[in-house]
Amino acid sequence: MQINQKYVTERLSTSYFCDSIKVISKTMTKLSVNVNKIATLRNSRGGNTPNLVDVAIDIQRFGAEGITIHPRPDERHIRYQDAYDLKKIVTTEYNIEGNPIPKFIDLVTAVIPTQVTLVPDAEDAITSNAGWDTIKHKDFLKEVITECKRNNIRTSIFVDPDRKMIEGARDTGTDRIELYTEAFALAYHQGNHQAIEPYAKCAHLASELGIGVNAGHDLSLDNIQFFKENIPDLLEVSIGHALISESLYLGLENVVNMYLHKLK
Q1: Distance CA 54, CA 86 (A)
Q2: Nearest to 109 by CA among 151, 75, 67
Q3: pTM for this prediction
Q4: Is residue 9 part of a domain?
Q5: DSSP string of the chain, one letter each residue
Q6: Are the beta carbons of 227 and 11 closer than 8 angstroms?
Q7: End-to-end distance of the chain based on CA atoms, in angstroms?
Q8: What pLDDT sits at residue 121?
Q9: Is residue 37 part of a domain?
Q10: How many domains would you assign to the chain?
Q11: Which whole-number Å values give the CA distances from 127 to 121, 124, 130, 247, in the listed order?
Q12: Which domain holds residue 198?
């Protein structure tokens, strides 16, 4: 296979200065692959091709350190049964994302994934488009997180890069936050590298507060290395749409390993 040089050439970069904070991330960042798009392709023909379980097995064999799914109430991509089927074969970390409606909570407390990521997406949302207001919804989130922890499930809250939301997350008792990175990805594509600044500040604050930092949404081969190099203590990235799209050109095994290389 001939590889697109755009994605293979490593970009020379320097550490980014966020006010007085010099960010040099030395944390080992795990790659969790979101397989929703595999389920979307399968569902489009009504059969079982591609086989979601087989793809998840292969993604782990290729080196990914986690599998992410985001079931929605209408099951338009990931079906609730998929969550049970994947539980049997995920040997790395298993992350289930979603809006904590009762049906979702029943699912995760039955499956017991490694991590549950709470996302405030509306039922008709095409994709996640906002983080939690952790101050307004503190009591609700605290209740959900307490239930997850009672079942030995690590918790993460999807948040915008807003320091007040990070401080609010601390009061919910969550283990981690997941920084919503769409704004960064869009600005970076337009040449605005300063867009990393609020993310670096929020990640630094989260670490000070004892909260782990994950990130996801529109991260890609083009921007992942810059993001990783400038976010302190980044524990995990969850990537689906871009990774699967890039794999159409470059191959799934190759792309997984390219992400792993950029996350070193």
Answers
A1: 9
A2: 151
A3: 0.88
A4: no
A5: ----HHHHSPPP--PPEETTEE----SPPEEEEE-HHHHHHHHTTTS--S-HHHHHHHHHHTT-SEEEE---TT-SSS-HHHHHHHHTT--SEEEEEE---HHHHHHHHHH--SEEEE----TT-SS------TTTTHHHHHHHHHHHHHTT-EEEEEE-S-HHHHHHHHHHT-SEEEEE-HHHHHHHHTT-GGGGHHHHHHHHHHHHTT-EEEEESS--TTTHHHHHHHSTTEEEEEE-HHHHHHHHHH-HHHHHHHHHHHT-
A6: no
A7: 25
A8: 79
A9: yes
A10: 1
A11: 7, 9, 10, 20
A12: 14-262
Lookup result for tokens 């798009």? 37
What is residue 129's predicted lDDT score, i.e. its pLDDT?
60
Give the C-alpha distances (Å, rounded to integers) separating 258 from 166, 202, 243: 31, 27, 10
Catalytic residue list: 70, 97, 217
Residue ranges in the chain modelled with pLDDT below 50: 1-22, 126
Please say whether the beta carbons of 201 and 164 come within 8 A. no
> In CATH, what number is assigned to the domain containing residue 226?
3.20.20.70
- Confidence at residue 4, expressed as pLDDT on a 0 to 100 scale: 42
Rounded Cα gap, residues 108 and 90, in angstroms: 15
Q: What is the pLDDT of residue 130?
A: 75
Residue 26: per-residue pLDDT: 65
Q: What is the pLDDT of residues 84-143, one digit of tens each?
A: 999 999 999 999 999 999 999 999 999 999 999 999 976 655 455 679 999 999 999 999
Asked if the structure places residue 8 within a domain, the reply is: no
Is 254 within the bounds of a domain? yes
Q: Are 222 and 8 in contact (CB under 8 A)?
A: no
- What is the number of other CB atoms lying within 10 angstroms of the CB of residue 141? 24
